[in-house]
Amino acid sequence: MGYTFDFGAVFDRAPELFWGSLGTLGLAFAGMILALVIGILGVAARTSKNKLVRAPVVSFVEVVRNTPFLVQIFFIYFALPLMGIRLSPTATAIIALGINGGAYAIEIIRGGVESVSKGQVEAGFALGLHKADVFRLIVLKPALRAIYPSLTSQFVMLTLTTSVCTSIAAYELTSAAQRIESDTFRSFEVYFSVTAIYLVISSLMMGIFALISRYYFNYPTR
């Protein structure tokens, strides 16, 4: 082939990849927080007996889960300004990640909530707990333990999805890699290195989530 591998260009630009990785983690963390908030509030509305409260959440979940993330982020960044709503690339990325992750979080958390027996809920009311306390202490905590593996896997996927945010010039790892590649023309070396970095980030996140699970959810169920 006659191609000479040279990772020197990548090593010379390592600080840019480092800051790009921090940008990815920043977008992912902010998106996760927003997704979790949307998920919890969405489940409270999704399980409501009031159809007027439940229907918008069902529609939201269906729309988000059945449209590409790229289209969603383009809509927020390019279409909303036509209605006078202008957001920076970073703000757009966080909102888009939160909305996308939130739609999946609603269904994941809802599955956990519905796994809690009605007897436990009725016992909470019998003890005189307020509805909000019943949801927080009796329903939400056991549900989070049940859905924790699925929820954390979704958050890892959300972290990898941040790479799409480079399409609107949000600063993260892939956008940093594109700049380095355009300057050095070392496509293989740059994207091989970025692939390794994403693998490290994903592995670290799974390890951290496992430690959290061991610390917070390691209690007997009976």
Describe this protein with a few key phrases:
222 residues, mainly alpha, MetI-like fold, 9 helices, globular, transmembrane transporter activity, transmembrane, AA_ABC_transptr_permease_3TM, Amino acid ABC transporter permease, MetI-like
| Count of helix runs | 9
Mean pLDDT: 89
Q: Could you describe the largest sheet, including whether it forms a barrel?
A: none
Based on DSSP secondary structure assignment, what is the total number of beta strands? 0
- Level-1 CATH class name of one domain: Mainly Alpha
Distance between the termini: 64 Å
Given the helix and strand composition, which structural class is it?
A: mainly alpha
Explain this structure to me?
The protein is mainly alpha-helical and 222 residues long. The protein has a domain at 19-172: Orthogonal Bundle (MetI-like fold). The protein is 77% helix and 0% strand. The protein contains nine helices and no strands. Helix 2 crosses helix 5, helix 5 (89-114) packs across helix 7 and helix 6 (118-126) crosses helix 7. It is globular and about 75 Å long. It starts with 7 loop residues before the first helix and ends in a 6-residue tail after the last helix. Its main location: membrane. This is Amino acid ABC transporter permease. Keywords: Cell membrane, Membrane, Transmembrane, Transmembrane helix, Transport.
Summary, kept brief:
The protein has a domain at 19-172: Orthogonal Bundle (MetI-like fold). It contains nine helices and no strands. It has helices at 8-12, 14-46, 51-65, 69-79, 89-114, 118-126, 131-161, 173-184, 187-216.
